Amino acid sequence: MQEAYVVAGLRTAIGKAKKGAFRHVRPDDLAVVVIESLVKQVSGLTPTAVDDVIVGTAVPEAEQGLQMARWIALRSLAIEVPGVTINRYCGSGLEAIALATAKIKCGMADCIIAGGAESMSLVPTMGWKTAPNFTLADDHAEYFLSMGLTAEEVAQEHRITREESDAFALASHRRALAARSAGYFQQEIVPVTVEEITVEKNHRTIHRTVVCEDEGPRPDTSLEALSKLPPVFRQDGQVTAGNASQTSDGAAFVVVLSEAMVKKLNVKPWARLVTCVSAGVHPRLMGMGPVEAVPRALKRSGIRLQDVGVIELNEAFACQALAVMKALDLDPERVNPNGGAIALGHPLGCTGAVLTIKAVRQAQRQNQKYALVTACIGGGQGIAAVFEVFS
Amino acid sequence: MKRRIQKVAVLGAGIMGSRIACHLANAGFAVLLLDRLPDAPAESLSASEQRNRLVNDALQASVRSKPAPLFSNHRLRLITTGNFSDDMPRIAECDWVIEAIVENLDIKRQLFDQVDRYRRQGTIVSSNTSSIPIHLLAEGRSHDFQQHFCGTHFFNPPRYLRLLEIIPTPQTRPDVVETLMHFGELFLGKETVRCKDTPAFIANRIGVFSVMHIFHLTEELGLTVDEVDLLTGPLIGRPKSATFRTADIIGLDTLVQVARLVYERCPHDEARDRFRVPQWLEHMVRNNWLGDKTGQGFYRKEKQNGLTVYPSVDLNTLQYSLKPKPSFATVEAMKRAASWQQVLQQATAGTDKAADFYRKFFYGLFAYVSRRIPEISDELYWVDAAMQAGFGWQHGPFAAWEALGIRQVRAAMEAFHFTPAEWVDELLRRGHESFYRFEQSKRYCYDVSTQDYRPVTGSEHLIVLEHRSDHEVWRNSACRLVDLGDGVVNLEWNTKMNTIGSEVLEGVNKAIELAEQNFEGLVISNQGENFSAGANLALILMLAMEQDYDELERACRLFQQTSMRLRYSAVPVVVAPHQLTLGGGCELALHADSVVAAAETYMGLVEVGVGIIPAGGGTKELAVRASDAFTDGIPELPIVQRFFTNTAMGKVSGSAEEAFEMGLLRVGIDLYCMNRKRQLFEAKQRVLELVRRGYVRAQPRQDIRVAGRTVLAALYAGIETMVYGKYASEHDRLIARKLAYVLCGGDLTATTSVSEQYLLDLEREAFLSLVTTRKSMERMQSILNTGKPLRN
After folding, report:
1. Is B149 a domain residue?
2. Which of B31, B63, B252 is nearest to B159 (CA)?
3. Among B26, B142, B517, B768, fewest CB within 10 Å belongs to which?
C-alpha cells in the first residue's frame, strides 16, 4: 500500500450567513476559486493530473444539488476531471479528505482534491423539503431535535453552566482575533472577488468587493454582552446566539497526493492522515459524538492523547465543546488555539477541511508532530482524524 | 373637481404624529412623516440616517408600542420618513398635511409658514392641536391656506380610539370639511364629528366637565373615591375605569390642564366654577401623584401578602387605604333593572346618597350639554356621538336624558337649580318628547336652529339591530332573526360573551332554512361587544366530566353539520365578525360564503388553550385551505405548517388584516371595513352583491389533497422540538399531535384526495379523545373559573 500526503490547503474567508459578503454567492463558485488557487500552489501539478474532486456538503440540494462536485471539477480543472459530492453533515469536509487518502492508499488514485463547500445563506439547514421517516418520527421524534436543543440536553447532562459557556465563547473570539493579527489566517485564505448586481434608483448597478478576512470574530464582545443574550432554543436554556457556532458560508480544500506523485513533483508534504473514524451516539446527545470517535481514532492510530500537540474540536456549541473536553480530559490550551466556530463560523460541510488546514498549520508553527481534528455530527455521530504533521 | 386624498403628510412624529401616520397607513394611504433634525447628530450614521434619526426612532418606538398602532407591520412600507429641513418641499406631493408638533402657537406658526410656502394650492392643511384655537393658527396665512385649513383632532391611540373631531374656521371651505368628514368616517373608520372652534372642542369640554362635576360632587356629598367609581362605571354604561381610575390613566396633570384651559378661556360658561381645580387635586399634582405615569394617583398599586391590591386615596387626608366594597340600596335596585331606561330611573329615584349623587350628576350634566348647543356644536347628536366614541360612554348625554324623559327631568331640575337651554323648553312647548326619532329605519335628530327633526348624517349607512325589533322574523331564547330589508335577514345572538351553545346552533340552522325559503340571503352578525368568544365551554366541560360520550359526540356533530350547512346553503351567507372572534365563532366565519369583518377583528382558533382541537369544522377547513394552496413541485410542509403552528399556539390575529395573513380570511373573497358602524350595512351589501352576480350553492368537496405521513413526520419532529424547548408541555404534545394528524389527513402513505366528511370524522375523533382527558378538563375549568388559560 502506498502512503498518501496532504501537500497543500486553502480556504475562502468564512462569511456570515444571510448578512455577510457571501450571502448571494454560490458555494460552487467559492469552491472553484479555492481549487484554482490550490492547483497553482502545488508546483508542477497540472489540472488534468487531478484524478478526482471530493466535495463535502451537508445539504446537497438546490445550489448544492445537481451533484455539485462535478461542476466544480469541470470549471476549476478540466472536463476530464470527475467530481463526487459526499455528505456526513458537519463531518463532510473531513470525510472527503479521509476518502481521498483511502483511495490513494489503495492505489485507486494519485491526486485528489478534497474538502467542502457550504452556503448556509442559500440552502437551509433542514433543506427545502424536510421529510423525516414517519416510522422513526412517530416512535422517536426526539431523534430529530434541533441542534440547539441537543446542546441543551448535553449541557444539562454534563452540568455545563451558562457562565462557563459564555467564558468559552469569549475565549474563542479572543483567540481568533489574536491569530488574525498574527497573520495566521492570511496564509490560508484565498481572496474572493464578489460581484453583486443590484438595482439602485432604477439602475442596474454592479458592486465588486474583495473578501479576504473572516467576518465572524468580534473585537467588541465581552462577558457582559454575552451574558445578556437570551436563550434561543429552550425557555430557561443556556444556548444563545453568542455561545453557539455562527451560521456561515465558505469553501476549503486540500490536495492529497500519493507517495509516488510527491516524489515526481518533488513537493514537500504537509501532513499524513494517520486515521479517521466516525462513531455513533444517541441523536439527542449528538454533541457528544467526539467522545466516542476520538478514543477509537487514537486506538487505531496507536498514538496517545498526550502526544497530540494541537486539537481542533469543532465548536458547534460552547457547552457541547466543554462537555467533550471534560469527558475526554482535553487540555484547554491545546484545543482550538486560534479560536473556533463560535468566533469564526461553521459552514457545515466545509468545516472539516477548514479545521484540517488550521490544525496542520498550527502544528507546523509549533513544531508539533501530531494534530487531532474532531467534530460532532447531527443525527448523533462524531468524527475524529489524527494527522502526522511535517514541520 | 372631485377632491381625493391619496397621500398625506404628517408633521411631527411624537406620540400622536407617528401613531396618526400609522393609522393612515392602516387605511392604505402613502404617508410622509417628518420631524425636526436631531440636536446633536450622532457619529457613525450616514448623512440621511443621521438627519432623520429623530423621526425614525420615534416611528420605531410607536410601531413597537402596545397596543400596536399598525394592523400589520407590512404597512410600514407606506410610511416614508424625513425631516423639516430637507424634505418640506415634498409636502407638495401630498393632498393633506396634518400638523402634530408641540403645543406652542409660535412654533406651530413658524411651521405653517413653511407649509404655506411649499404646499400645492388646494392642499388641505390641518392641526391636531387640542388646546390652541384653530383660527389663531390660520392667522396671517395665505388666502388659499386659510380656505383649506381646519382642526383635525385625533385621540390617543388613534387606531383604537374611534373619535375624530373636525374643527373648521369661518374661512374653511365647506367642501374641505365635507371631504374630511367623509374621509374620517369611511377611510379611517372614525366617528367623525364637526365641532365649533371653542376651547377643548366637544369631547374634552364635556368629558372634563363631567369629571370635574363628579369631583366636586364627591366632595360636596362626602363620597369616597371607591364609591364614586362604583357609581360612575359600567353600572351607568361607562367604562370599567369609571371616573377616578380613568383620571389616573389620562394623567391628573393633563386633566388639570384642560380644566384650566376651559376656566380661563370660557369666562361666560355658566358652570365655570365646576372647572375650578379642587384643593386636594392641586395637592396631588404638586406631589407628582399624576396617576399611572408616576405610579400613583387616586389609586396606588401595592403588594400585600403576595397579592396585588389598589388602595385608594382619601381626598381629605390624602392617605391611601383599602376600603370595604361600597354598597348602596340604589345600586342594588339598578342591578335588578331590566333595561337601560330602568337603570337610569332607579338611579335617580332612590332616597340614599347614591340617588342624590345621580340626580345632581345627571341633571347638572344634562343642563350643561343643552347649553353648549350651538356654542360647541350645532347638532346635538354630535355631542352624543363624541362622548360615545371619545370617552366610551354607552349612551350620550342627550340619549340618557331622553331615556329618563325630557319633560320629567326638566321639571325635576328646578329643585336643584339647574337650568337647561331655552331650546329645550321650546322643544317641550312644541309637544316633542324626544331628541331622536326613527322613521323607516332612518335616524332623525332634533335640530335646534330649525326647531324640527332632521336626518342624522351618515345614517343611510347605518343599520342598528336594536332599532329593528319590529322587523323580527323569528327568535328563540338566544337568537333573533331580523329582516334588514331588500331580502336580507340578519341572525344575532345574545349570550354571555356571545358564546355558541345549542340554541345558537339551532338559530343558525333555522335562519338558513328561513332565508332559503323566503329571502335572498343571510348575514350573521351582532352589535354586542364581541362577535363570539367561541363554543359554550361550560356545557362541554359538564358533559366531559360526566363522561357522556354520546352527548359529546352529538354536540360536536351538530356543530360540524351547522358549519357545513352554512357553507352549502342555497342562499349566500355572509358572516360579519368584530372584536373577539374565537374558536367556534371563528369556525362559523371560516364557513361563510364571504366574511365582512370589522378592521378590529381578533380572530383565532384557540381551542388548544382549553385542551381540545377545533372540531366544529375548523380543523377540516384549515386542511381544505392548505390543500387549495398546494402547488405541484412545491413542498407541502410549509403550507400545512403555517396553519398547524398558528392553531397549536392558539394565535389570535391582531387585526382583520392579520387574519388575512394567517389564512383565516381569504383574499378576494373576504373583506373588512374600517368603520365598525358601517359593517352591517356593508355585510348586507355583500349579500346583495353575491346574489346579483348569481349565487350557486357549492358542492361538498371530495378533492381535498392531504399530505399524509411525510408532512406528519416533520410536524411530529417539530412538536418534539417545542417540548424539549420547554415551550410545550406533555399535554400540549398530545393535543398538537392530534391536530397535526387531522391536518395531514392521518398517516396516509402518500398525498391523497379525501372528502370533507373524512376530515370531519378525524376532527371529531380527535376532539372526543381529548375532551375527556383530565388535563383538558382542568384547562376548561381554569378558563371558566379564572378566565386565564392553564398550561398543564
Report:
1. yes
2. B63
3. B517
Q: Which long-range contacts (CB under 8 A, 24 or more apart) does B698-703 make?
A: B698/B567, B698/B568, B699/B568, B700/B564, B700/B568, B700/B755, B700/B756, B700/B757, B701/B624, B701/B755, B701/B756, B702/B753, B702/B754, B702/B755, B702/B756, B703/B627, B703/B753
Between chains, do A131 and B724 touch, taking CB under 8 Å as contact? Answer: no
Distance, CA of B238 to CA of B249 (rounded, Å):
15
Q: 10 Å Cβ neighbour count for A299?
A: 11
Active site residue A319: no
Domain match, B303 and B407 both: yes
Residue B608, in any domain of the structure: yes
In this structure, the answer to whether residues B215 and B113 fall within a common structural domain is no
| pLDDT, position B44 | 63
Instruction: Give CA angle at B672 (B668, B673), nearest 5°.
Output: 135
Q: Is the pLDDT of residue A336 over 90?
A: yes
Q: B181 lies in which domain range?
A: 7-194
Q: Does B635 touch chain A (CB under 8 A)?
A: yes
Contacts of A233 in chain B (CB under 8 A): 725
* B381-385 average pLDDT score: 96
- Residue B747 touches chain A, beta carbons under 8 Å: yes
- Mark whether B187 and B213 lie in a shared domain: no
Are residue B140 and residue B207 in the same domain, yes or no?
A: no
Q: Whole-prediction pTM value? A: 0.91
B791 part of contact set with chain A, CB < 8 Å: no
B90 found inside a domain: yes
Tens of pLDDT along B442-462? Answer: 889 999 999 999 999 877 788
CB contact under 8 A, B637 and A132: no
Separation in Å, CA A143 to CA A67, A135, B724: 27, 12, 11
Q: Is the pLDDT of residue B42 over 70?
A: no
Eight-class DSSP state of A329? T
Q: How many domains does chain B have?
A: 3
* Closest chain A C-alpha to B638 CA, distance in angstroms: 9
B43 — pLDDT class (breaks 50, 70, 90): low
Do B121 and B43 belong to one domain? yes
- Condensed to tens digits (0 to 9), the pLDDT of residues B82-121 reads 999 999 999 999 999 999 999 999 999 999 999 999 999 9
Residue in B721, B726, B747 closest to A145 by CB: B721
> Which residues have C-beta within 8 Å of that of residue A91, sequence separation ≥ 6?
A56, A278, A352, A375, A377, A381, A382, A383
How far does the CA of residue A159 sit from the closest CA of chain B (Å)? 17
Cα B238 from Cα B340, distance rounded (Å) = 12
Listed residues B370, B387, B422: the one ending a domain: B422
Query: Is B725 in contact with A149 (Cβ distance < 8 A)?
Result: yes
Does A133 sit within 8 Å of B724, measured CB to CB? no
B489 and B528 together in one domain:
yes
Beta strands in B156-211 (DSSP E): 163-168, 191-194
Active site residue A346: yes
Nearest beta carbon to residue A137 from set B637, B713, B725: B713
Answer whether residue B50 shows pLDDT above 90: no
User: Is the pLDDT at B35 greater than 80, yes or no?
Assistant: yes
In-domain check, residue B433: no
Instruction: Sort out which chain A residues have CB atoms less than 8 A from B710's CB and list them.
Output: 131, 134
- Please confirm, yes or no, whether A212 is among the known catalytic residues: no
Residue contacts between A and B (CB atoms, under 8 Å): 63
Residues B483/B484/B489/B493 CA torsion (nearest 10 deg): -80
% of residues, chain B, pLDDT over 90 = 92
Provide the shortest C-alpha distance from residue B639 to chain A (in Å).
Answer: 12
Backbone phi, psi, residue B123, to 5°: -75, 135
What are the tens digits of pLDDT across the range A157-203? 999 999 999 999 999 999 999 999 999 999 999 999 999 999 988 99
